[in-house]
Amino acid sequence: MPVERLGGSFRDPSGFVFTRDGILFRQVNELHREHWDYFLSSGLHDALVERGLMVSADEVGEDLAAAPGAYKVLRPEAIPFISYPYEWSFGQLKAAALATLEIQNLALDHGMSLRDASAYNIQWLRGKPVLIDTLSFEILREGQPWVAYRQFCQHFLAPLALVAYDDVRLQQLLRIHIDGIPLDLASELLPKRTRMKPALMLHLHAHAKSQQRHASDDPKASSKGRTFGMRAFRGILESLSSGIRGLDWDPPESVWTEYYSDAGSYTQEGNEHKRMLISKLIDEVAPNSVWDLGGNVGAFARIASEKGIPTVCFEFDPGCVEQAYRDGVVAAGDRNFLPLLQDLTNPSPRIGWENIERFSLADRGPADLAMALALVHHLAIGNNVPLPRVASFFADLAKTLIVEFVPKSDPKVQILLTSREDIFPDYTIEGFERTFAERFTIERRESIASSERTLYLMRRKT
Amino acid sequence: MKARAHRAAGSIVLLSLLVLVAGSVTSYIDAGSGSYIFQLLVGAFVGAALAVKVFWRRIRAFVGAKISRKG
Question: pTM value?
Answer without folding.
Answer: 0.92
